[in-house]
């Protein structure tokens, strides 16, 4: 088991010593953060989940066929960041209906989310063979390299947009590295659209996204002995249609000091200084093809919702 607290402490030390200060959205997803994100996905402003659901409902059989090995035989369906698996269950049902022999290997950093997912699968799909892994992506990618047989890797929900462009390319190359020619990737991409709709999706009227962002400070208080006063922080987000980037921040509303006992260090924050916490990039279909090619991958098939808001893209290595 990875030492999450140790990795978190190192990350916070490095991130808060930078200018501008930054923390990774990867650490949003403790058990509380995962629960808040489940609420976000149901918000009226948050279109990506509904759009991807519609793709799975309309194209589920075609997706299952595109991910299954053409030569037949057993394979593993590995999902990075499985969450509650709601969309994936549609795909799992299609694979089971087709009589495909496979193992579902969900990966999530939240033990609570994984426990809930495995229990729901046991009740809803008792015939399914499940091999869960509570892990971060880096550990899961290492495990992928040692997994025998054919595999299809899922990375859904526009999570690919959370990476900085350089890190995104590196991540895709790491995903591509263990793939055999018959293996497949299925990645969800949020597509560029009305900038106002995009911004609203990350700054909802009910304040759930703000609570999700601020929960990161609550986690640091709990796990690292920090003394962030949440009353002195606020959530802010904006969207730049020139580069397709949503950027989210935690804003210090007062000049203040924050002590982090695990680091034995005190950090100074000026009034209105920000901590950059998340990127969420939006793409065009052409950009997706160019990104795939740069990572040593090719687009096999693309599935979009009726409104063209979202794309689930099946990828493979460049050589059959």
From TrEMBL:
<feature type="domain" description="Histidine-specific methyltransferase SAM-dependent">
    <location>
        <begin position="9"/>
        <end position="315"/>
    </location>
</feature>
<protein>
    <submittedName>
        <fullName>L-histidine N(Alpha)-methyltransferase</fullName>
        <ecNumber>2.1.1.44</ecNumber>
    </submittedName>
</protein>
<dbReference type="InterPro" id="IPR019257">
    <property type="entry name" value="MeTrfase_dom"/>
</dbReference>
<dbReference type="InterPro" id="IPR029063">
    <property type="entry name" value="SAM-dependent_MTases_sf"/>
</dbReference>
<dbReference type="InterPro" id="IPR035094">
    <property type="entry name" value="EgtD"/>
</dbReference>
<dbReference type="GO" id="GO:0032259">
    <property type="term" value="P:methylation"/>
</dbReference>
<dbReference type="InterPro" id="IPR051128">
    <property type="entry name" value="EgtD_Methyltrsf_superfamily"/>
</dbReference>
<keyword id="KW-0808">Transferase</keyword>
<dbReference type="Pfam" id="PF10017">
    <property type="entry name" value="Methyltransf_33"/>
</dbReference>
<dbReference type="GO" id="GO:0052706">
    <property type="term" value="F:L-histidine N(alpha)-methyltransferase activity"/>
</dbReference>
<keyword id="KW-0489">Methyltransferase</keyword>
<dbReference type="InterPro" id="IPR017804">
    <property type="entry name" value="MeTrfase_EgtD-like"/>
</dbReference>
């Amino acid at each position: 088991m990875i030492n999450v607290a140790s990795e978190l402490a190192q990350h916070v030390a490095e991130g808060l010593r930078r200018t501008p200060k930054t923390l990774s959205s990867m650490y949003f997803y403790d058990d509380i953060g995962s629960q808040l994100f489940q609420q976000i996905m149901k918000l009226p402003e948050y279109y990506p989940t509904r759009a991807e659901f519609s793709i799975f409902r309309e194209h589920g059989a075609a997706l299952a066929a595109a991910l299954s090995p053409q030569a037949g035989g057993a394979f593993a369906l590995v999902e990075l960041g499985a969450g509650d698996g709601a969309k994936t269950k549609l795909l799992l049902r299609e694979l089971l209906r087709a009589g495909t022999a496979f193992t579902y290997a969900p990966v999530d950093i939240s033990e609570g989310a994984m426990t809930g997912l495995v229990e729901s699968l046991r009740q809803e799909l008792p015939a399914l063979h499940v091999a869960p892994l509570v892990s971060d992506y880096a550990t899961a990618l290492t495990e992928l390299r040692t997994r025998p047989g054919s595999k299809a890797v899922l990375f859904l929900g526009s999570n690919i947009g959370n990476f900085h462009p350089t890190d995104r390319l590196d991540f895709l190359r790491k995903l591509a590295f263990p793939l055999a020619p018959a293996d497949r990737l299925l990645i969800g991409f949020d597509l560029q659209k009305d900038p106002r709709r995009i911004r609203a999706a990350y700054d909802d009227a009910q304040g759930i996204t703000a609570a999700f962002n601020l929960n990161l400070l609550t986690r640091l208080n709990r796990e690292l002995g920090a003394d962030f006063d949440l009353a002195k922080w606020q959530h802010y987000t904006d969207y730049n249609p020139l580069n397709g980037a949503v950027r989210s921040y935690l804003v210090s509303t007062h000049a203040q000091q924050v002590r982090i006992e695990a680091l034995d260090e005190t950090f100074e924050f000026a009034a209105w200084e920000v901590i950059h916490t998340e990127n969420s990039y939006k793409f065009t279909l052409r950009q997706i093809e160019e990104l795939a090619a740069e990572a040593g991958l090719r687009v096999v098939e693309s599935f979009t919702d009726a409104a063209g808001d979202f794309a689930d893209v099946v990828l493979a290595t460049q050589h059959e």
